[in-house]
Amino acid sequence: MRGRAPLNLRLNETSYQVLGLNIRPSYCQLAYAGLSGHIQKNLTFETPTSPKKLVRAVEKAVSGLMTERGSKNTKPFQRMGVAIPGHVDAVSGRILWTPTHKELADFPITEELKLLTGIETMADSDCNVGALSELWLSTERKKDRSTDFVFLNVSDFGTGAGVVLNGDAYLGHDAHFAAEFGHMVVEPNGPQCRCGRRGCWELYVSNCATWNRVHPRTPFDAVRFEEMLADARNGDARSRESIFETARYLSLGISNIGFAFNPAEVVIAGRITAVWELIEAAVLRGFGSPHLRYTVRPARLSADDSLLHGAVCLSLQEIFAGPKFWQR
Ligand SMILES: [Zn+2]
Fold this sequence. Notes:
This protein has two domains: about 20-130 and about 305-315, ATPase, nucleotide binding domain (Nucleotidyltransferase, domain 5, 2-Layer Sandwich), CATH 3.30.420; about 145-300, Nucleotidyltransferase, domain 5 (2-Layer Sandwich). By secondary structure, the protein is α/β, with parallel strands linked by helices. The radius of gyration is 20 Å and the shape is globular. It contains nine helices and twelve strands. Zinc ion (ZN) binds near residues 183, 193, 195, 197 and 200. Zinc ion binds near residues 183, 193, 195, 197 and 200.
């Protein structure tokens, strides 16, 4: 044999562990990971209705994960990253606005979590951390690394985005919010949006919008929505019609985003990716242009997993020099 035997270096997954917290409208997910960012265990709990109850529930969940880790590892978790479903001052970690949890506005969540758990905590909007997850995963697979992309989270009641340019998130001039494509007006006389305007993009592409075209009188239900997507795959005409309408609006918004940023990729997370093979052509060609040469593809992880993994990555990013992200 010529040369030296290769030395396989591995990150120690137990000596330095961090947490990721993903706050969703009705449930929260908490996970821990080692330096690789690969999630080792996670648990889910109901999202409490007040900020104080929320931080106490997180503290309890942190203790739960400590117990699950077993008696062999008694080292405390070192850091915690939090994905917020709304606007957050990414520097101070104060929540500014969440459409689903108005009571969280102005709540200094990172400060309060640190006080209660003793763990250094940082927070950013869920879509920014979703973008971080994609950047982290693409860095792991160096071959298909993209440093200019848009992460689009088509969620049950809204649509958010995170933009990565030259390997960095674009956070807006004050690091409060950016890339709120869900609130691009696409129909000036459209229905009222929760942002106060009319006809925003998310009113046409969210899962609830896709559901309501078929079931206008039945409240949205995630499980039944996934059944509806399965119906579309099985040829149900009304379900298909609705997802193609969503695809048409996705194409409209994505092509506008394409002309604004000329990204290499637009990455879509959310339940709608379950019918990706049906809608891909419509999303690409609907409002396409020879000038637009991006790839549009589903995220590497499900929407929840992207946000949870991104929250873990947020807590790790300052430890590693790369991927370069959120430098201030
Ligand atoms: Zn809006």
